[in-house]
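Today's session is about reading a structure prediction critically. Students often jump straight to the picture, but the first step is always the sequence itself: look for stretches that repeat, for charged clusters, for runs of hydrophobic residues. Only then move on to the predicted structure, which in these notes is written as discrete structure tokens rather than atom positions. Here is the chain we will use throughout the hour.
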Amino acid sequence: MVNEFKSIEKWVNLNAVKRLVEADALKMEIIPNPKEVDGIKVLQLETAAGAAIRFFDKAIGINVPRSRFLPVKATSDLLLVQSDLYTLEDGFVTRNKARANPENPSIELGPEFKKVSNFLGRFKSIPSIVELDSLKVAGDVWFGAGVILKGKVSIVAKPDVKLEIPDGAVIADKEINGPEDL
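Below is the predicted structure for this chain, in token form.
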């Protein structure tokens, strides 16, 4: 599936923002966003910055293709940008030329990887994913250093089983549910 999501860049004149704030003219809608933080249900109140465009005269929007930005909204996105799929060169994020597939791999991480601290703790180093098509990881899974993932990989630990992917493991087009599958 091709991801057609686009972002809208927001460039504003700070003097114009100041005028609107001083005139109390920025009447932004509040967006309730229910979340769970440390097991406690909370209601986060947000505003959409892009919705403020209606308050500015001569405002324009510019569609930016997904290939031009790398949003990190979840740890699955963090895995992409920390991997060898992208590098930072002269201040620009560039895609690894060794990747043949023009699409990013699909990455689905279980709740054990949701918090950034838990995510980072489960990797000795971020695996190589240049040749990865899709990845599903769930359960008590830990990655060694120098792991390479290729093709379609599913690693789902059985309940009450700690699954450790050894240093230097190469996993290609494989489903792993326990240590016996490694």
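Discussion point for the tutorial: The helical segments are 14-22, 75-82, 116-121.
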